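Exam review. A common question shows you a sequence with its structure tokens and asks you to describe the fold in words. Practice with the pair below. Do the first one on your own.
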Amino acid sequence: MIRRLAVLAAVVLATGACFVGTGSDDSGQPEPGSPAPGSPGNRAEQPSTEEFEKDIRDAASSAADYWKAVFDRSGIRFTRVRDIFPYTREGEVSCGGDPIPANNAVYCSAGDFIAYDANFAVTAFAKVGDAFLYYLLGHEYAHGIQVRLGIQYSYTIQQELQADCMAGAYIGDSVKSGALTLEDGDINEFRDGLLAVGDDPSVPWFTPGAHGTAAQRSESFFSGYEKSLAACDLPRG
């Protein structure tokens, strides 16, 4: 289980969801009730509500701290994503007038917020592990950073794989700095989660909403994890 050291802000060691229009999601995520590919299934001890909520708070806070340090180093004013909150049913939350689907996590640029399906997130937490929550929040927070940097691409898959890389950089750099501590099994949890959220290989890369296959998403995430933001093709300021 990832543990956050409360007094440490993330320090960048090396520099170099999901949004399309008004919003973005993590399509292709596992349905609640189904273990992620490669996962051991239900854990012996189910996580408590308190554990889940604490990990969500810590993941969101550590991602914000990390990106503030990145922006400070570059002399750019940083603003946190305005809000992060759960929903429990399809259409309960809208982004720019469009209802957000169930079994998802979304960064909405129209409202500058991250919304996640609590039922999906709790199930993933129970079946994959708490490390998945840090990836999930890290990926969606990366979309907020893309908006702040004015990054735009012609194809969804480019945005999504870059966000995976940025999430990997946030987690990897935070581990190296001591802001986050990995426990046994966390790397496997990242791998299992990435296997679960990949597109079917039959989905053309240029399809609107394409996120990349499990292999592509894993490669992007671990490139960021190992090589930091230098691997993520960010604009140089």
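Now try the second one, then compare your answer with the model answer below.
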Amino acid sequence: MTQNGQTPQEHTLDNSLALLKDGYDFILKRRREMDTEIFRTRLLGQPALCMGGKDAAELFYDTTKFKRSGAIPKRIQKSLFGVDAIQTLDGEAHRHRKRLFMSLMSRERLDVFMELLREEWEAAAAKWERLEEIELFGESQELLYRAACRWSGVPVDEETARRRADDMGDMVEAFGAVGPRHAAGRSARRRTEDWLEGFILDLRAGEFKVPEGTAAYAMAFHRDLQDRELDSRMAAIELINIVRPIVAIGRYVVFNAMALHDHPEYREKLAADEGKYRQWFVQETRRYYPFTPFLGASVIHDFIWKGHEFEEGTMVLLDIYGTTHDPALWDEPDKFKPERFEHWGGSPFDLIPQGGGDPNFGHRCAGEWLTIDAMRVGLEFLAGRLDYDVPEQDLDLSLSRMPALPDSRFVMRNVRRKYQI
């Protein structure tokens, strides 16, 4: 294979610092400068291919060409995902574990979660009415944590609920961070794994009981391909991989609130329809605001795609943020326009804020449907069931901060519920 010359190459010893500086814009910025879907660079001291767009996303989720094992750095496993968790598996081991996760995402189970979530929003709103102001991000993380635990069969201790929710959030915060933020995420993971491993052991010993349909039961008693129970630590890690992503929806709650604040004209449209517009609004929030910057894999064997050579073992990054802002896929991608989803075809490879492909068999997030439904519930309250004031604050989003979040965390004052007659 001698076709490397067809792939644009960055001439640099290592671009890791530039990745931290540019953040979400790292790959898209260079794709635009080079006018290419794909380019070569060096990251973390090794060669890397960076690519984006719909065709690249479809290629990336071809499990005959790419694997996740060994592609996710240990520093991310030790803070965000957990060491050797489902995100790092391939082949039948991944499919077997993915079936476990997808079994928890039936329509019936999702409906149960949404009812619990509405209860938590109601309880939170009642509390907020008694306060002068609240920080929406921290509050939404806690209410999502409470709903996730109740749904999963994990006991909620009133004295530790906010701290546990913050720990889940700190694991997410550690992604893309160095220094204190990353250290806080690793410490949070250790505390949470210790806590939930003890809970798993109590379940197995019969000292605590949960319904069979819950995630806690499923993880405690799941059997692998060798018909063995998961190691208790791994069971705890995978239980975290149910609760933590739900807590992470707190970012989308803030992004929904920011979109409503920046585009108040949509409030009437959201109130007038019977859910269709709410769906468009949620999907546009997922597309427009920065959530996942990129995902990684490694090449299984040499192959050529569109004249570009992929060598075995090469690290490959798929530009998630750039694909959801690709002008070849989205008209005026830097404008917030929910109406664009009226005629969207539903491709699994263009709207990929939580990954692409088939959620049942690939590495697309198992909780994507839950995320969309949870965002709709939050939007229902923010746009229709609550009144509140938004004081002057810093709501700018820096694309160099991964994961992105406004410095103010979205402060709300004078929150009051709208009572239905």
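Model answer, second protein: Residues 284 and 338 are 5 Å apart (CA to CA). Residues 4-417 form a domain with the Cytochrome p450 fold (CATH 1.10.630.10). Full marks require stating both points clearly.
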